[in-house]
Structure of DnaC replication protein:
Amino acid sequence: MESANKHMASPEQKMINTFICEGCNQEVEQKELIIPIGPRKGEKVIANYGCICEEIELAEQTKEACSRRKQRKLMNSFHYYSLINESLKQATLENYEPTSNELLKAKQIVTTYIDTFDGKQNMLFTGIYGTGKSHLSVSITKKLMEQGYECLFLSLPKLLTKIKQTYNKEGATEEELLSVIQRVDLLVLDDIGAEQQTEWSTSKLFEILDDRAGKATIYTTNLKSPELKKRVNERNFSRIMENTEVIVMNGSDYRRRDF
C-alpha cells in the first residue's frame, strides 16, 4: 500500500491567491490544479484550501437537529405527565386578553418572568375565578419549553387523585411521578386549596414542596392568604410563600369576557 501511494500521481499546483473568507473568517489559499490522470487528465480546476464554511454549516445543521429532537422530547414529556384541562391546551401568552388594568399588569409581569427566568423564582397567582391564572401559567410553560426548559403543569387535586390511582393500577408509579416533579425546571401547581383536605393530602403536598425547594414553582389559587393558610396548613403555606412573588388577579371573568 505504501509503495502504491508513492507512485500515485499528484496534481500540479499553482498558487493563485490568498484571502480571508467572509463566511468563516479563515485564511484561504486558492490554487490551480491540473488533474494528472483519468478521463479529465490535463483539466485545470480551482480549489480553495483552508475554508471551513462547509464544516460550520454541517455543525449548525447537527445542532438544529439536536435542538428539534430535544424540543420534541420536552413536549412529549409535558403532554404525557401534565394534568391539564382541554380548555387550556390552546392557551398562549399571545391569546391572553386582559379585561382590566390589573390583569394587563399581570401579563406584563409574566412576560418579564419569562425573559429573566433563572429557575429559582416562584410566583403565586391568586384571585377570583375566571381571571386567567391558569391560562397565564400554561403560557409560561410553553414559552420556557421553547427555550429548552423542562416544564410540567399539574392540577393539584388531579395530581393527588393520580397518585392514589398508582397504588392499584399499572402504569406510572408514584415514585416516577414524584421524580419528574422534582426534576423539571418549572412546575405549575394549579388550583391549590381546592383539593380534599386530609392528613395524607397535606403530607403529600409537603413532600412535593420539599422536593421543589430551590427550584422554580408557580402556584395558582382562588383563595386569599388566610384561607389558603388554613387549607394547606401553616407549614405548607410557609413553603409556598418562600421566594414567591404574589400576583393578585381580580377583575371581570376572563372566560365570560364575550358577555
